[in-house]
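Let us work through a complete example step by step.
Step 1: write down the sequence.
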Amino acid sequence: MLAAVRSTFPSFTFHIDCNAAYSPADTELFRTLDRYRLAMIEQPLADDGMSLVNHADLQAKLETPVCLDESALSLAHVEAAIRLGACRVINIKMARVGGLEASRRIQALCAGHGIPCWVGGMLETAVGGAICAELATLPNFTYAGDIFPSSYFYDNDLGKPELVVRGGSMATSRVPGIEQAPDPELLERWTVDTASFRV
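Step 2: predict the structure and record it as tokens.
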């Protein structure tokens, strides 16, 4: 499949995502992929107790950058990955690493070590996607983010205005924070139950 894509698009930038489906026994397979000049191989190995060590061993044998995704669980995990040489790219998924502040810390750490980042999905509503889009504007985010227009997932996104892609780009906020917020009418219509608490 990679040979077909590369021969059809000789100068196109693309990567593959392995979703942690392989093991160190597949090292030779990954070495053969160097010839396709991939931007990265995302999460090639299983995310287990040896994940960072195994990725470090693999990265040492490849020219193609390894990108950590499922193994980039927190700032501490990314620090360990950098020290071990387990990757040359990090996919920051804000929902996985502990929010926007944790994502900013990881971005700064990676920038300090020359490890480029990109933004992964998981927050697919207009509100979550808008925050991801803003994160992706920071320095050291060098690869297109995994952020989709609202219509890709929802017929009618609760968050308004919905995210749109035009000409391959997504507009970011023109106000402090983000412009998106839950639509009050839809929120009321779709609310199943409510509870009130006193401080």
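Step 3: interpret the result. The CA atoms of residues 43 and 129 lie 22 Å apart.
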